[in-house]
Design goal:
heterodimer; A: about 230 residues; alpha/beta; Rossmann fold; 4-stranded antiparallel sheet; 6 helices; globular; B: about 375 residues; alpha+beta; 2 domains; two-stranded antiparallel sheet; 15 helices; about 20% strand; elongated; binds adenosine-5'-triphosphate; binds magnesium ion
């Protein structure tokens, strides 16, 4: 299997009043295409920081980060934005839907950046909503949906541009058990049936059962040390 | 991104934040109503006082007099004025007003020799209702300016009473000269007899000169003719005359210009306030847009577009209301027998909208720039 994401010596530093905080410290990781990777680790260990780097909404201080052949650590802000629009879908713990837009309009939002006809856009949005099983709620506003339904809409929004990678930061963190299970099953389907590479941060060991493997972060590095990212055999 | 695709998104943001947008648009509409009204007054002043190259009318007044009640000149000056070189025609005029103070609803009678009037003004005036023969035949007949007629509801065949004069409406006239819009033209002796004045006394002479280049020269010549007469004259171009009579109004309107600027400042403050609050409350929403692939510049563009929509909608409502009120109210500021129209052209509305668009951009600039510079990851951390 080909490697989709490759981190070498990946480091992110923040400076605060002379002090240097280093949530990621020389991390090495390789993620093959089609992987479903769960990331665990104590609070503050750098999980969100790593996810943000892979999603291209943050840039590394040092090290190399190659996603789907692009060296995204070196892209300018503008090109990085354009890259995000095509290659990643981000799923947040708190869904982060736009409150004044309906489910349909929220899913349509990323397509503003793509040169599609009205018809093509409509088809894509409907397909994505059907994929997450929420097409009947497309005219509802986020405030009219349950948390689990909101998260499905957010997943539809993440997949509507057909990205290779889906990153999810504690996607079930705010959901009850049943909704969490449904969301996890959905992510597994997307991984197995649609071939999406999924990288998920989680605190809930149960959810790791859906992943093909689980890695632990500690103080900005992979726990258990040296391995070049524990690529699956 | 094609900016046109973003329009529905921007409109939804404005429409679906109903309370915020409604209050902002309402405030802008009120300010732009005032601004447009001030502009309309300004335009009226400019229209009647700004000299232009084709001015050919002089007004001969009694020297040192400022109102029609005290300017009294012998009617027989007419022949001596006609003999001044460069004069094309002279109309003696007796003016009686229904209200001596500045007002928006004055009826001004202009008594003129009917034949002189038709000879000199006939070509510039269009009869929109009634009959000219009627006017010539009846001694109490009046030709009423269109603005006055629609403001007071005058129709041919009616009689009306103003300034102690009862006149019969023979016709309604239209002309490009704002001074015709608010007057009732009647026979000269009819007005002379109605007032306390005897026959043979007029308020002023309106003099047409052959060419605008001789305007000043003819004015000087006329005043020299009467320099040693018992009633010396003071002659002005019609526009300078209006400027002299209406200087109070003009000064007030000039001051109102500051009011207009104040209105624009209020619009800026309203839009800026609305945008700043909305951007602050939508930090994570903008971060989501950027996580979805919008660049900082694109997010900034969306924010600025919202400012433009708010201010243009508010400006459109307020400006259109002001233009409608000015147009259907048929107002003119009248004083001492002259009138300054409140001129509400569609161009006024258009220029108001352009100004509003500019203000919308200006108001959104700083918050948009800030939103485009924020670090995406930090926005989520703070939310
Ligand atoms: N913009 C920033 N400025 C300063 N410090 C930061 C910034 N972003 C992250 N950090 C620090 O980096 C460390 C790692 O943060 P990160 O959010 O990646 O942890 P995490 O593993 O996701 O934790 P949690 O499980 O609580 O979400 C934390 O100590 C955090 O305070
Ligand atoms: Mg985190």
């Amino acid at each position: 299997m080909s490697v989709l994401i490759e981190c070498r010596g990946l480091t992110r530093e923040y400076r605060k009043g002379g002090q240097v905080i280093r949530p990621l410290d020389g991390l090495d990781l390789a993620v093959p295409r089609g992987d479903f990777l769960a990331l665990m680790g104590p609070s503050g260990s750098g999980k969100t920081t790593l996810l943000n780097l892979i999603a291209g909404i943050d840039s590394p201080t040092r090290g190399e980060l190659i996603v789907d052949g692009a060296d995204i650590g070196t892209l300018s802000r503008r090109r990085l934005a354009a890259w995000r629009a095509r290659h990643v879908g981000y799923v947040f713990q708190l869904y982060n839907l736009v409150p004044v837009l309906t489910a349909y309009e929220n899913v349509e939002l990323p397509l503003l950046l793509h040169p599609l006809t009205r018809r093509q856009k409509h088809d894509r949005v409907v397909t994505a909503l059907e994929r997450v099983g929420i097409a009947d709620r497309r005219g509802h506003f986020p405030s009219q949906l349950s948390g689990g339904q909101e998260q499905r809409v957010a997943i539809a929004r993440a997949i509507v541009t057909d990205p290779a990678v889906i990153v999810a930061d504690e996607p079930t963190g705010d959901l009850d058990k049943a909704s969490a299970r449904a969301v996890m099953e959905l992510l597994r389907e997307l991984n197995r049936e649609s071939g999406k590479t999924v990288i998920m941060v989680t605190h809930d060991p149960k959810t790791t059962e859906y992943a093909s493997r689980t890695l632990h972060l500690e103080e900005g590095r992979l726990a258990g040390g040296s391995a070049v990212g524990g690529v699956m055999a | 991104m094609n900016p046109v695709r973003a329009v529905p998104y921007v409109v939804k943001q404005v429409v679906r934040h109903r309370v915020r947008s409604g209050l902002t648009v309402g405030g802008i509409a009120i300010a732009m109503f005032l601004f447009t009204a001030v502009q309309a007054m300004n335009e009226g002043v400019t229209r009647v006082t700004a000299a232009s190259a084709n001015d050919t009318t002089l007004v001969v007044y009694r020297e040192d007099r400022y109102c029609p009640a005290t300017s009294r000149l012998p009617q027989d000056y007419q022949r001596r004025i006609e003999s001044v070189e460069g004069v094309a025609g002279v109309t003696p005029m007796k003016i009686v007003v229904s209200n001596c103070r500045t007002s928006l609803d004055v009826v001004t009678f202009r008594g003129v020799p009917k034949s002189d009037f038709i000879a000199q003004r006939g070509g510039e005036i269009e009869l929109v209702a009634g009959s000219l023969e009627d006017w010539q035949r009846r001694t109490d007949a009046a030709l009423v300016g269109e603005t006055l007629a629609s403001r007071r509801g005058f129709r041919p065949g009616m009689t009306f009473n103003a300034a102690g004069i009862t006149a019969y409406v023979a016709g309604v006239i239209r002309s490009d000269d704002p001074q015709d819009h608010n007057v009732a033209y009647t026979a000269l002796p009819f007005v002379q007899l109605a007032g306390r004045d005897q026959l043979g006394v007029v308020t002023q002479f309106n003099v047409k000169v052959e060419d605008s280049s001789v305007l000043d020269r003819v004015a000087g010549d006329i005043d020299r003719v009467f320099a040693n007469a018992q009633d010396p004259t003071a002659t002005f171009s019609e526009k300078a005359f209006i400027g002299r009579v209406a200087d109070d109004i003009i000064e007030l309107v000039g001051f109102a210009r500051w009011l207009g600027l104040g209105c624009l400042a209020a619009v800026l403050a309203l839009v800026a306030n609305s945008i700043v609050l909305s951007v602050q409350s939508r930090v994570s929403e903008h971060a989501v847009l950027r996580a979805l692939g919008f660049s900082g510049g694109q997010v900034a563009g969306l924010i600025i577009a919202e400012g433009i929509v708010l201010s243009v909608v508010g400006g459109g409502v307020g400006g259109a209301a002001a233009v409608a009120v000015a147009r259907y109210g048929n107002f003119a500021m009248s004083v001492e027998g002259i009138s300054i129209p409140i001129s509400a052209r569609a161009g006024l509305l258009a220029s108001g909208l352009v100004v509003c668009g500019g203000i919308g951009v200006l108001a959104g600039l700083v918050p948009a720039w800030q939103a485009s510079r924020r670090e995406i990851a930090a926005c989520f951390r703070a939310a």
